Amino acid sequence: MSTMLKRLIAWLVLLGVLVFAGQQWGYPAWQSWLTEREVARIEALKSLPLPVAAQPGRLDPDRMMQDLSWMAHPDRQGRESGQPGALATRHWLLEQYQQIGLQPAGVEGYLHEYEVQEHIQFSGVFRQRQRHIEAISNAANVLGSLPGKQAGLPYIAISAHYDHLGVRNGEVFHGADDNASGVAAMLELARYFAQHPTEHPLLFMALDSEEKGLQGAVALFRDQAIRPDQLAFNVNLDMLSRDTERQLFAVGTYQHPWLHPLLDRVQQQSSVRLIRAHDRPWWRAGRTENWVNSSDHGVFHRHGVPFIYFGVADHPDYHTPRDTSDRVDAEFYQAVSETVLDFILRLDQQLAAKAQR
């Protein structure tokens, strides 16, 4: 064996040892350091003082609570996608859309009906993940729109999933916060905007099958019920109605840094603390949870649509039968909904001004 070959083998062995050592000791330590730093950053955001104690009331909190309570009632049987409770909720949503005056924006009227075949869903690049997706039938997204004042602008889409987990082992999973709260807020926003038109047209999307792997949003683009080029932005609402520390997470600023000044202005008028977090990649945030693909906004993001996700942190009643309407913090819920309204109004103006340049 030549001297050069021996040296090459030695270098390869040394490189292998260094890589192994880095994986065993360096990488975990680095990830722990990143995680600790990100947790510290989030905790610092949580400690910032709130600018205002209360907000102007433009939305009807009693009506929002009535809508939320209707969806989370035991008669809805947990609104599992394709089951009678979800079908009843769908028919109720059609009535609400008609009463509000939303224009049909589905494939047939307000509806985009779809089915899903059983399959394995793969995700991830460096770390391949897979999820079993069960077959789904009798599912439908409910889509309605309001015209904008400026012709030719794409939609601002406001989405919230109306399905939940159904009945398991004889217990109803009511899904009050997850996500009757998001749908009821979306309906109340639609009522407001029906009386106060925006520059952009608005698309209100009550999406199905989120709890089964975001399949309602996936089908939306798969079936071309909506195209990415028709959308200026997606505001996704999922779990808005309770947090003991008055915190609302705003996810998407890492992907869209131009949202920071807008959210700064929203925060100045909000009585809830907007926490911009859970959207950084692992090489910035370590093992901190990443919520970019945790709800329907993830599908919009994968199709190139700018997004923000508003939602609270998981609480002890999340995905349990205890997620009931009597546990909702009505005052916090109203403040969150008013904050979302303020965000949409400012977003509409900013994007419209940009379109005119």
From TrEMBL:
Transmembrane segments annotated in the record for this chain: none
Domain Peptidase M28 positions: 141-343
Gene Ontology biological process terms from the UniProt entry: proteolysis
Gene3D superfamilies from the UniProt entry: Zn peptidases
MF annotations from Gene Ontology: metalloexopeptidase activity
Alphabetized PANTHER family for the sequence: METALLOPEPTIDASE M28 FAMILY MEMBER, PEPTIDASE M28 DOMAIN-CONTAINING PROTEIN
The name this protein goes by in its record: Peptidase family M28
Organism, scientific name: Alkalimonas amylolytica
Lineage: Bacteria, Pseudomonadati, Pseudomonadota, Gammaproteobacteria, Alkalimonas
